[in-house]
């Protein structure tokens, strides 16, 4: 059997561990493994594929990023190519990708990525390509799996950063607003905020009332606790408002960002307290994966090869504790994993008196 593997979308700690697991599990069965560079782009470009062997994947389990490279724009069904007048035109090049896949004599592709990558893989499945997907997201927003690798690493880093802000916030009697990733799901902000002892946690699932936020912060200062830490997910929006779009590029999903600065400005204006904001941004994606993420990623990769060996194409790997399992890819599309209002972690925050923007 000849397997291809690619990684798409934003990078996440644990991608290299998946690549290593797929390679070693496949080689042990006598399969061949070929890496595809930069998502599907490697199937369109010279030198875009290379054989994976034990030497190439040795020592990469604890390495951040991805050995294969990744892209979050330029998907094959809307691929940016130069137009006749120098402008960029989005073109369907999926047939070229499929032709190269067949030219390589591939039996199947293991596609590692988020919701967008799963959707692309599903479309190639409809065109006749054998695919198995491995879900990846630091936002933990995919409903097909309980937890994706990368989340624990991002949450651990964000928790450390929030913890470091306590001392400077207290020393200067400041309000510190920290913007974390989380487009439509607030798991990262909720868990890092709880673990980092934040005083306000704002999530995409709850449109916040800025007056309630300011009242909570002012209460802290009025009761001899003259500092506050506010954690905000990037997809959070105020009541009656919209998510803040930092930019929009052709062929790419909108980039959110700026809500932290907006919240900080509103707090300063309404409370007259010294307020600062910072965005952790891509620091949340980088660096060494935690041991939990390494093990989880290795298990994801090994399960993908087990599915391939059994001819179980068109499926996505799912972590349903205590076991790795799978489900039809078509059924996984569009399944969201968002923080429910009765979630235990959210209720815990409320029990501690943490303001979540609605009370």
Number of strands: 15
Order of helices and strands: EHEEHEEHEHEHEHEHEEEHEHEEHH
Number of domains: 2
Shape: elongated
Strand portion: 15-25%
CATH class of the largest domain: Alpha Beta
For the report, how would you describe the main beta sheet? 7 strands, mixed
Structural Rg: 22 Å
The N- to C-terminal Cα distance equals 57 Å
Q: What spatial order of strands do you see in the largest sheet?
A: 3-2-1-6-7-14-15
* Structural class based on helices, strands and sheet pairing: alpha/beta
Helix content percent band: 25-40%
Q: CATH topology of the largest domain, what is it called?
A: Rossmann fold
CATH architecture of the largest domain, by name, is 3-Layer(aba) Sandwich
Q: Kindly report the average pLDDT value.
A: 94
Characterise the protein shown here:
There is one protein chain. Helices cover 36% and strands 19% of the residues. The chain is of the alpha/beta class. A seven-stranded mixed beta sheet has the order 3-2-1-6-7-14-15, with helices on both faces. The chain has a four-stranded parallel beta sheet with strand order 9-10-8-13, sandwiched between helices. A two-stranded antiparallel sheet has the order 4-5. The model has no long low-confidence stretch (mean pLDDT 94).
């Amino acid at each position: 059997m000849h397997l291809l593997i690619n990684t798409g979308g934003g990078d996440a700690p644990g991608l290299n561990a998946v690549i290593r697991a797929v390679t070693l599990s496949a080689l042990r069965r006598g399969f061949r493994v070929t890496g595809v560079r930069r998502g599907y782009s490697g199937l369109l470009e010279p030198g875009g594929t290379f054989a994976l062997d034990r030497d190439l994947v040795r020592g990469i389990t604890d390495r951040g990023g991805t050995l294969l490279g990744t892209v979050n724009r330029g998907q094959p069904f809307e691929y940016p190519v130069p137009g006749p007048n120098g402008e960029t035109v989005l073109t369907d090049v999926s047939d070229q990708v499929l032709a190269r896949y067949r030219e390589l004599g591939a039996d199947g592709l293991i596609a590692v990525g988020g919701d967008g990558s799963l959707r692309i893989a599903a479309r190639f499945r409809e065109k006749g390509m054998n695919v198995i997907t491995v879900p990846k997201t630091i936002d933990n927003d995919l409903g097909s799996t309980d937890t994706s690798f990368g989340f624990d690493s991002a949450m651990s880093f964000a928790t450390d950063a929030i913890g470091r802000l306590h001392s400077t916030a207290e020393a200067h009697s400041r309000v510190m607003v920290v913007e974390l990733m989380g487009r439509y799901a607030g798991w990262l902000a909720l868990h890092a905020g709880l673990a980092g002892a934040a005083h306000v946690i704002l999530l995409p699932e709850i449109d916040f009332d800025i007056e309630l936020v300011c009242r909570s912060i002012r209460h802290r200062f009025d009761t001899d606790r003259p500092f506050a830490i506010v954690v905000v997910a990037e997809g959070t929006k105020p009541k009656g408002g919209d998510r803040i779009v930092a930019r929009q590029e052709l062929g790419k999903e909108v980039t959110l960002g700026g809500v932290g600065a907006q919240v900080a400005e509103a707090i300063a204006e309404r409370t007259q307290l010294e307020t600062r904001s910072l965005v952790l941004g891509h620091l949340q994606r980088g660096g060494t994966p935690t041991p939990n993420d390494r093990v989880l990623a290795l298990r994801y990769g090994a399960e993908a090869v087990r599915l391939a060996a059994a001819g179980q194409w068109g499926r996505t790997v799912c972590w349903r504790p205590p076991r790795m399992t799978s489900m039809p890819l078509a059924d996984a599309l569009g399944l969201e994993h968002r923080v429910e209002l009765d979630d235990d972690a959210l209720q815990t925050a409320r029990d501690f008196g943490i303001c979540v923007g609605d009370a």
